[in-house]
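Ticket #4471: complex job returned nothing on first submit. Input attached below:
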Amino acid sequence: MEVKKSVICGVCPGACVVDVQVENGKLVDIFPAKDEPFGALCLRGGFAKEILYSSDRLKKPLIRTGKKGEGEFREATWDEALDYVAEGFLKIKNKYGAEALMSHMGRGGFEQGTTDFMGISDPRNHAIPGFFAPLGSPNASGVGSICYNSIAIFAPMTTVGLYGTNILPDIANADHIVVWGTNPITNSPPFQFQAIRKAKQRGAKITAIDHYVTDICKRADDYYLVRSGTDGALALGVLKVIIDEKLYDKDFVDNWVLGFAELEEYVNTKTLEEWASIACLEADDIINLATSLARQEKTTLLMYTGLEYSNSGVQAIRAIYTIWALLGKLDQLGGLLLDAEANQERLKKIECAKAEKKPIGTREYPMFTELTRTAQFIKFPQAVLENDPYPIKGLLNIGSSIITSYPNASKFAAALAKLEFLVVIDRYFTEDCKYADVILPASTYFEIESYVLHGASIKRRERVVEPLGEARQDIFIIHDIAKRLGYGENYPKDQAELIERGLGSKELAEQLSREGSVIRPMPARVYKKYEKGGIRKDGKAGFPTPSGKFEVKSSYLEEYGYPGLPEYIEPIESPISQPDLAKNYPLILNTGTRIQTTFRSQFLNIEGLLKIQPDPLVLINIDDAAKRGIEDGDRVWVKTIRDKVEFVAKVTKGMPLGEIELNMGGGSAYQAKSWAQANANRLTDDNNCDYISGFPVIKALLCEVEKI
Ligand SMILES: Nc1nc2c(c(=O)[nH]1)N[C@H]1C(S)=C(S)[C@@H](COP(=O)(O)OP(=O)(O)OC[C@H]3O[C@@H](n4cnc5c(=O)[nH]c(N)nc54)[C@H](O)[C@@H]3O)O[C@H]1N2
Ligand SMILES: Nc1nc2c(c(=O)[nH]1)N[C@H]1C(S)=C(S)[C@@H](COP(=O)(O)OP(=O)(O)OC[C@H]3O[C@@H](n4cnc5c(=O)[nH]c(N)nc54)[C@H](O)[C@@H]3O)O[C@H]1N2
Ligand code: SF4
Ligand SMILES: [Mo]
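Support reply: We reran it on our side without changes. The output follows.
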C-alpha cells in the first residue's frame, strides 16, 4: 500500500489537503493531512473509494436510443459522441438562432480549472461570456441562479460596493463570532469551522442565529431561533435598538453612511415588540443581541444560505451588513475586513461578438443578469415551455442535477423533456440524464491534474489514480465540443495549457510543477481603508459605491426601481400573509439544511454513507408530531398546496413549534430507494422568488405533515 502525502482531496469541491492510500493503482482511503488547516475530513471511512468506484459511475459516452425519459442508451466512442453533440447544437442554431442554445453549470463544475474557463460562477473571471457566446447566444447560466450570488454579489455590491469575497470575517482576531444562517460544521469544506474552533479555544464567544437548534447552535454561547425567512425583521429590530440607544459609531455614521436618517425613519415604522414578534422572538432577545454586538469591539460575522431564500433575502443580508457598519466594525481588526478588488490579470478575457438578444430572466430580474452576466436559469422552463421571451431548444448541462435542485421539479423535468437537444456531462447517471440525447462521463478530481487557489497559496492538484473507464476531465470535454463548433482555442486543450493559462504565466506554471505549491505575496493589511483610500479603484477615500459611502439606501437598487432601504417583506406564503392557506398547511416548510453524508443530490447511492443516514428526513417538533400522532421514524407525507412527498419523521425538541426542516437532494431514480421519490423540490414553487435575485423561496413556505 502506498500513501500519497498532502494531495488535494478529490471527492468534493472543498479541495482540502489529505493523505491518500493507494493500492495497485486504486484509491483505498483518505485521511486528513498532518498540520493542514484544511485537513478535517468529512468523508473518512472508505467512502471516497465507494464514491470513486461505485458501479453507477459513468464510464463511456452514451447516446440515447429509447424515447426521452425512458433511460435507454447505447455506448459510443468519444469521437462519435462529440461529433453528434456539435451537430445537434449547430442544427439548433441554424433552425432557431443562437439564443436558443443555453449552457448551465452546477455544483459539479467547481473544479478550479473548469470554473476559471467556464467563467460563470464569478462574473469578474469572465474568461468567456458563456459557452455558446461565440455562436451569438447570451444564455450562459449556472447554479448561481439559486445559490451564492445574493450573498456574494447582490447584497454586498449594492451596500458596500464590493463582492462578498472581498468582505472577510476576521475569525482569527475576533472575540465574538456571529454565525447567521450558516452552519460551518456540516459544510464541506470545513475550514471555517476549524477557524471557529480555534477561536473558541482562545475564549472567543459564539452566537448563532438559525431557524432550529443546529450543531453550531449547540456549540454556541448564545443562540437565537427565528421564524424562517424573517431575518430581515430581526436585523431591523437590532438596528432600531442600535439607533434608539445610540449604540452606533457616530463618526462613521456622520461621514460614511448614506441613508441613515431614512433608515431611522423606517425602523421606527414598527415598535421593537412588532419587529421581534415577526421573527417569533421577544423584544428582550433583540435588545440582548444588539447590546452584545455593540459591547464586543471585535465582533465578526459569517452568513450564507440560511438568508438567501426568502422574499426579501437580498435586503435582509443588506440589513445585517448595516448592523456591522453602524457599529463601526467594517475594516477593523476582528470585524469584517474589506479588500480592494484585485486586478484580474490572471485570466485573459476572450472577446467575441455581442449577442443580439438579452439573456433569459432579464425582464424579470434585470439586476441579476446584468451583475452576473448570466441568464437567470429559474426562467428556463418558461422559455422552453412557453417560448417566453423566446424559445430555448438546446442545453449543455455540466455537473448539475437540475430536477432535484430547482423548485417545482416537475416543471423543470417537463422543460428538459421538451428540449430538442440535451447534453449532460456528469460522473453519475442523474434524473436529468433520462432526458438527455448524449451523456458524457466526467472524471473525479482524484483522476485529473489541475491547480487550486487557496487564499495566498496556489497548489498543484495531482492525479492520484487513473480515470475510471473512459471518463475525462470536464474542461477538455468542453474544449473538444468547442473545437467542433469552431472555437476550441477559447479553452485549454491539454494539462500543460490548462495550468499555464489558468495561472496566467508560464513561469508560475513551471514553478508550480517543480514545487507543488506557490505562495503569492499578499500586501500587509491596512484597516479603515475607507478613510484614507485603498478600496476604491480611483484611489480616493470612501467605498466603491456610486456615492462613495456605505449605502444603507442603495442608489444602485433604486436605479432598478427596487426599494433603496433594506426593507423587510413578509414571506408571501406564510401564516401571516396567507391565514386561509395556513388552516390546511399550518407548518412552516424549510428545506435543504446541509447534512454531512450528502452534497446536495450527490452520494445518495453510496452504501457506506447511506448507513449513516438511510432515509430522507423531515425534522418536526415533539408537540407538533404528537398532535398528528407521529412518532420518531414514522413514514409521513409532507404536503404543500402543490404536491405531497414521502419522508421519514425525525421528532426533535430542537425544532421550534410550527417549523419543519426537510432534507433536499432526493428525487432521482438512480439513488437509493428511500430517497429516489423524496424530491423536496416537488413541494417548492418556481414562481415564489426574491424580487431582486430571483432566488426561489425554498426556506419559507407552508406545509402539513401527515402520518401515512
Ligand atoms: N429545496 C431546496 N433546493 C435546493 C437547495 C436547498 O437548500 N433546498 N439548495 C440549492 C443549492 S445551495 C444549490 S448549490 C443547488 C445545487 O444544485 P446542483 O448543481 O444540481 O448540485 P448537485 O445536486 O450537487 O449536483 C451536482 C451534479 O454534478 C455531478 N458532478 C459532481 N462532480 C462533478 C464533476 O467534477 N464534473 C461533472 N461534470 N459533474 C460532476 C454530480 O454527480 C451531480 O449530478 O441546489 C439548490 N436547490
Ligand atoms: N456536506 C455538505 N457540504 C456542503 C453542501 C452539502 O450539500 N453537503 N452544500 C454546499 C453548498 S451548495 C453550499 S451553497 C454551502 C452552504 O453552506 P451553508 O449556508 O453553511 O449551509 P447550511 O449548513 O445548510 O447552513 C445554513 C443554515 O441556515 C439555517 N437556516 C435556514 N433557514 C433560515 C432562516 O430563515 N434564517 C436563519 N437565520 N437561518 C436559516 C439552516 O438551518 C442552516 O443551519 O455548503 C456547501 N457544502
Ligand atoms: S470537504 Fe470535500 S474536499 Fe474536503 S476532505 Fe471532505 S470530501 Fe474531501
Ligand atoms: Mo449552493
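Residues 170-338+535-559 form a domain with the Dimethylsulfoxide Reductase; domain 2 fold (CATH 3.40.228.10). Closing as resolved unless it happens again.
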